[in-house]
Give the backbone structure.
Amino acid sequence: MQFDLIGTILWPLKWMVELVLVGWHALFTALGMAPAAGLTWVLSIVGLVLIVRAALIPLFVKQIKSQRKMMEIAPELRKVQEKYKGKRDQLSREAMSRETMALYKKHGTTPVSSCLPLLVQMPIFFALFSVLNDVSKHAASGVGGVGLLTPELTTEFYDARLFDVASMHVNLVTAWSQPDGQVTVAILLTLVVLMIGSQFFTQLQIISKNLSPEAKTGQAYQMQKVMLYILPLAFIFSGVFFPLGVVIYWFVSNLWTMVQQFVVIREMPTPGSDAAKAREERLARKGKAIDSSGKVVPIEKYRAEQQRLLEEAERARAAQPKRQQPVGKQRAKKQQGNKPGGSPARPAPGSAASDPSS
């Protein structure tokens, strides 16, 4: 028997996916929905999205913090890049890499941190893909899945049709051979386009509204611009092979991301970004502002804080010792002669003070 490495790695994730799907299916069935109805299983997949994305909220918060840190260190990264600009030898490249990694370590961030939610979701995505692919052969063999997806539930899942037409496990390659194949293809194409469009729009709103001018010249910005086009392009080719259930999962997950990003950009924008300026204008119209700690306060309290900070800065400048300007030797002698008790400055030869007859 051949050892299935991928199947072994995905087994616990497939078990969890089946657990969540069966749990939501049982809930909707208890509410009176038909067990083999396409809508029942579609809502179960939507429930899977809600569970997964809710569990990823802590990672999303970490992603936001990492993105902010990457923007903060963008000027320092540019200095490192300028330092080694034009140097293509091995030693220079290694030194540049070391200094860049040292900056990341110092600030506790990496470019990969901004992709954490996506990277964590991918194994779950593949597990769902595997579960849906197994439905056909398991239903034909009369067996269940790896966990709570019993043979009876597997058959119901296999027989379920979205709009009484499209099966959850069919993809664009196999849809043509299905009854009402043209309608199934139309449904799949529509959902794939919506999935790709939502992915593109989500990334676009980040780089168009939530980046400061300084961040738009940094490495993180370049990576986000690449992702803006690479991810949708990848889904154009891979989406052909996605079962309908996976397309639904990814589309609903993208909708969650869009709403999540909208809330973050509106309420917690990056300082200096267009979104931050728009928020400040909204608050100003309500008589509010953001204080130095990032809290929303009445405009009177904000102005009082700004006045206090200004006075503290002026006192700090006044308390600093004045910097002594360097003087030449002749000027130093003259200043010493003008001091009380000091020797008078000697008159210059030929002056009136040096003439005895005057």
About this structure: Residues 146 and 238 are 26 Å apart (CA to CA). The chain has 13 helices and four strands. The radius of gyration is 34 Å.
